[in-house]
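Researcher: Hi, I'm a grad student and pretty new to this. My advisor asked me to get structures for two proteins we've been looking at. I'm not sure of the right format, so I'll just paste the first sequence and hope you can take it from there.
Model: That works fine. Here's the first sequence with its structure tokens right after it:
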Amino acid sequence: MGALLSARLSSNILKALKLDIPCFLWTDSKITYFWVRGQPERFKPFIKNRIQEIQKLTSPSNWHHCPGIQNPADIVSRGVRISRLLNDTFW
């Protein structure tokens, strides 16, 4: 669902601002990454419909994988103390 939200948001922003620029989309989920870049017909209707919408709104080649361990935004979602963020190489 996060990938679908990202696809909708990026598509709407590009349309609203009338921008014709490449958009890079990232996920820390390998499953989501391979779903988005794969063939929707392989999946059951719920996943298939979401993948089709994502692929309609974005190019599968614009999707990239970032392992959670390398995702600086993921650190904050884990409830890390500010003192750790100050010394973290990503922050």
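Researcher: Oh nice, that was easy. Here's the second one.
Model: And its structure:
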Amino acid sequence: MRADVVVIGSGPAGLSAARAAAAAGVQVVVVEEAPWAGGRLACRVDTLDSPPALAGRRADQAARELVAAAGAAGATIETGTLAWGLFPGAPGTVAVRRDGRVEAVEAGAVVVATGSLPAPYPFTGWTLPGVMTAPAVERLINRHGFLPGRQAVVVGDTSEAGRVARLLELCGAAVEQVQDIESAGGQGRVEEVTVGGQTRPADLVVLAVGRLPQVELLNAAGCPIGADGVPQHDPSTGRTPLVGVFVAGSAGGAGNLAMSIGSGAIAGISAAEHVGALTRAEAAARRWDLIRQLPPPARLSAPERPLPVDEFALVCRCEEIPRTEVEDAIRAGARTVDDVKRMTRCGMGFCQGKNCTRTVMNLLALRGAATRGQAGSGAAAPGGPLRPDRPGAVELRPMRLRPPVRPVRLGELAAAGRDVSLLERAIHPEGEEPHP
């Protein structure tokens, strides 16, 4: 398969990018892992208050309108299609998996609009059944008609927390919204929680403390990722340092719907320019018209208390690695997330670090602050990694990834006519580079 522009993700940003690129006359294919298009917006039923073009619409209705607009412009949307690798170049290649088969999609330009993930918020008992993220609760209720609990504690003071709390109340659940939680306990599932030193009954804990960009495809492709999780890019064009690769929406740090839709259109215009459908002047004029209409920038935010209170709470839930084991690795000389990964297996599980990388980085930042002897000096500046300023200092950057970033069966690769080889990669003891 080949397309002028491939958009990864069919949320508001991806659909907006597809519409803008298709309107310039290029062939656009949108690949979406979920069986439906529209992203998280399609799983919500609240009434939107922005952007103006969608104000007053129910969220899922707005999602359907965005899908229809992208299709009317000429974009093709492929749902149930998982992107597991991004290989920049001229042309670039997006490796996808669908219907049990893998294939390569060649693209003149790629827009990464993969959205964001709930920020991890580890505490004792956070792996118990009954502890869920806000998007998971919204999907269960709004798409499947299932209420996951009747005594709910919603953790967070974000707009997402308020929205899911109201949804649960409308469904008849008793809801308490709190800013922090100490622990959850129970036999086989959540039966009680401890908040502010007080233990009370609960059968559902909803985490809505913040979000982080979902950028594993960009990470594995070699795009620099800042300590805040945001990929390096030019917000005025969506362009990343990778040839022909653009980023849009919350994958690029956009913190609200209006910014996501606007940044998507900007990236779509830039992608069309990259493949020659628009001149530089035409693209600049179209982007400027959009930029003038955007609200003040709003960024994604992670929780202020990103560390588990209990030293034995699990940091890596996949490999069951507690905070104490991560701290032992740091005391033993780990200076990067990758060091911790090799020493503890933290990040080697199914999620490939999505649920633990942020917490490990914050534990490393604490060590960096202690090294400098100044509280808080280990915190990285937004948008860039903390580089060692002397031997032994920590370096705050996400885990290094390699494709496939999601599970792919060897049999599927072989069936696609690819050579499948098992390679041994040796890591030099003095650094990250492999032995020659």
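Researcher: Is there anything I should tell my advisor about the second?
Model: You could mention this: Residues 372-391 have pLDDT under 50 and may be disordered.
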